[in-house]
Amino acid sequence: MKETALLIKELKRGSAVAQKCLFNYKAEQMLLLCRRYVKNEQDAEEIMLDGFYKIFKAISTFNYHNEAGLHAWIKRVIINECLMFLRKKNVFNIVTEISSEELALEEEALNNLSAAEIFNLVVQLPVGYRTVFNLYVVEGIDHKEIAILMGISESTSKSQLCRAKTLLQKMLLKQGIGYVKRKSY
């Protein structure tokens, strides 16, 4: 903890060595985060670099309490960069109606998949589905905040999540991963 507090102090002084240290410490993790939102590796790298630029510019306003808080702040900046990039490209594929039946994966269905296999399925989702899925399922952001972040309604966010899950389940079925059909009442 003392090392991180010292690093933040040096970052606030504008130390290039401290910037390099933080970048080397977090870059791989943040690049993976960007890749969850953006398929193209070069776009993901550009977003990550833009995010770190903003982090270094805004570090003077950051109040360090602990390493978890620093990680959460960095992650939030990078996620916002991803969303800005997607908005600029106007690539959100937002579909508002829900017409798919609800499927439920068998309890053990995902145990045979590696993290890389799950990642590869998620990045195949259309951009809007993938973005809402990542924000809700992976980041734990609620639909109200997703709606604000993406400039959509809460019901559209919920619809996108439902469609993302349905599409993922269909992809899993193609790979032979089982499911059970839920009855809707």
Care to give the gist of this entry?
With 185 residues, the chain is mainly alpha-helical. The protein has helices at 2-12, 16-37, 41-58, 67-89, 115-122, 127-138, 143-150, 154-174; strands at residues 103-105, 179-181.
SSE map:
Blueprint: H1 2-12, H2 16-37, H3 41-58, H4 67-89, E1 103-105, H5 115-122, H6 127-138, H7 143-150, H8 154-174, E2 179-181
Antiparallel strand pairs: 1-2
Helix pairs in contact: 1-2, 2-3, 2-4, 3-4, 6-8, 7-8
Largest sheet: 2 strands, antiparallel
Mean pLDDT, all residues: 84
The chain-level structural class is mainly alpha
Give, in spatial order, the strands making up the sheet with the most strands. Answer: 1-2
Based on CA atoms alone, the radius of gyration comes out at 19 Å
Any key phrases for this structure?
185 residues, mainly alpha, two-stranded antiparallel sheet, 8 helices, 66% helix, 3% strand, disordered C terminus
Tell me what the structure shows.
The chain is mostly helical. It has helices at residues 2-12, 16-37, 41-58, 67-89, 115-122, 127-138, 143-150, 154-174; strands at 103-105, 179-181. The chain starts with a helix and ends with a strand.
